[in-house]
Design goal:
homodimer, 7-stranded mixed β-sheet, 20% strand
Chain lengths: 362, 362
């Protein structure tokens, strides 16, 4: 299987996303992208025993020394204290402003390491090496970093673009099936919002994707990254079009918060969020393709993801919407896909939020 | 006294620095620069009773509501916990991505509020309203934000440019004389590195400046801001020329760290740092104007600042240099003024640091 390379065009902050069979070649790519002779390798205690030695070997082959910093694994550690400890660790390891931080892991590792890189010495170069499907197609590309706050997910952080993203498909082999499946939730979202052809292709590939077939995953990761790269290049800091990437996330985030983080995986919540938001949009008369909710539900099910949300408390859902980062003043702006591959931003008065929640919990 | 306006040219991040007699007009300027109808006003418990009501009145006159958040005053609070509490306060107050953070206070307030604005919801608009001379001529302009770390000053933070800086000269009237004097340390630095005419002018104005005469202060603040604006516009993220603004700061920061923060005010440390670095530069044969150390020492003294550093421990000074943000790999890069208004970057092998420290402690 050959490497696929996608460019993220952000002027002087442009970079490449390499979708590669494995970690071989990572070191050379880091050397090329950053010129570094040493890096801080940030990973977690689940990924470290599986892949850290291989990543370090590839770096060493390219003449790059690494200091390893290991975080506790899991979304429940994506908070201020883990970030602060990581910043301490980076400073203790003697980084200077040219020392790249290489994040080897899923979205939690990438987001925490990314924000630590953004803020230690006011900014170190960043390399993302995502080892989950979710991180490959979504969180590792586009520069969003940060941690969760008692008031909501990802409420503290920075936009900090990486110099390189290296997605090694072989690392998906050690990913639990449920997590791989959850990643497919973001894949469905990406196709749905912007690429009708990819949505149709996912319907064909669904059995292969559900089985974790590397060729199918490689094809889909590269296409999702290309879509995300294009959207991010158009609107780096989410002033406009980038907001379409949040499809499924308004209901999805609220669901995660209301059920307590960890009940659903993020990708599962996004898939359920897509279904909820599409159903609401049909009720509102916004859809141009009336069967879209059923079509997405079918695809989500074929990919092995849950299609029925666990019962959630309406007032907890409402409270989560109140702190949504996409709300301004008295309005919440919600990306709604109106036809396969076509999404628009719908602005909703805050007074209508209880109604929105009611439609989700019906 | 009329307002003086200096533009900081940073493409889509450009903004104006207004040097005004007082806080009157602040609200209108905030409305113009940000379009906001409400702001979070961050101040400290020393500045709040002196100026917060006036600032809020000016904002209210322009139709802007403010929520006040008050920090404990003092450099010793410029750390992670104060920042985290401030971020909590901003989120609790219901900010959205368009809610500006207005920092009313000295450098500590501006740096903490600036980094909180940079990271809450991944970035809120920022307005700096400096109330100390040091903050007016230096820290409020240029976007550097952050907090101190056990390993050194300002080691954690972000570059986050304000939308507006409003320097109200009347606020200097309530500044303790020693703090106003310390601010003159950064004024001397700014003139020395880039503007021989301003250096000569400072020699003329020294008695008026030492006495806190508003006209003299206004003239000097506007000229220092113009110099800083030009340097920052050329090199926003300190990849090159901006480093000249760190003149005096290598020795100055080391001195502050070695003596324990709080012994010297930052501006005093910078003035002493300039003298130490110039003396070393002369010993190295780098100076083109041999009398520069004496000239600067005379001016610093005439401004009422200390010209002899308290005795500091050499090993503590050396340790502080080891974590200097300006050190890369085996070299430390040090801006050295070789003639009035002309500064170059001198790269020093790490092995020579003990020698450098020895020259300062001689």
């Amino acid at each position: 299987m050959a490497r696929r390379v996608v460019s993220v065009a952000l002027a002087e902050r442009s970079y490449e996303v390499v979708v590669a069979p494995g970690l071989e070649g990572l070191g050379e790519a880091v050397a090329h992208a950053t010129g570094a002779r040493r890096v801080a390798l940030v990973t977690d205690d689940v990924v470290a025993p599986l892949w850290a030695v291989q990543a370090e070997a590839s770096l060493a082959e390219a003449g790059i020394a690494s200091t390893r910093l290991t975080l506790p694994a899991g979304e429940e550690h994506k908070h201020l204290q883990t970030w602060a400890t990581l910043v301490d660790g980076l400073l203790a390891s003697g980084v200077d402003r040219r020392t790249p931080v290489v994040a080897l892991g899923g979205g939690v590792v990438g987001d925490l390491a990314g924000f630590a890189a953004a803020s230690a010495l006011r900014g170190l170069p960043m390399v993302q090496v995502p080892t989950t499907l979710l991180a490959m197609v979504d969180s590792s590309v586009g520069g969003k970093t940060g941690f969760n706050h008692a008031r909501g997910k990802n409420l503290v952080g920075a936009f900090h673009q990486p110099r390189l993203v290296w997605a090694a498909l072989e690392t998906l082999a050690t990913l639990p099936a449920r997590e791989r499946g959850a990643g497919l939730g973001e894949v469905v979202k990406t196709a749905l919002i912007a690429d009708a052809a990819l949505l149709a292709r996912l319907e064909v590939l669904a059995p292969a994707l559900a089985a974790g077939e590397p060729d199918a995953l490689g094809e889909v990761v590269a296409r999702c990254v290309a879509i995300k790269a294009e959207v991010v290049a158009e609107d780096e800091r989410e002033g406009g079009r980038r907001a379409i990437l949040n499809a499924g996330h308004t209901a999805g985030h609220a669901l995660e918060a209301a059920l307590g983080y960890g009940t659903l995986l993020h990708g599962e919540a996004v898939a359920l969020g897509l279904i909820a938001e599409l159903s609401w949009a049909r009720d509102e008369g916004l859809l141009e393709e009336a069967d879209l909710p059923e079509r997405v539900t079918r695809l989500v099910g074929a990919l092995g993801l849950p299609v029925v949300a666990p019962a959630a408390d309406a007032s907890a859902l409402g409270a989560a919407l109140e702190v949504d980062k996409k709300s301004y003043g008295n309005r919440l702006t919600l990306p709604i896909t109106v036809a396969a591959g076509r999404t628009r931003l719908v602005s909703l008065a805050r007074a209508r939020l209880p109604e929105l929640v009611a439609s989700w919990t019906a």
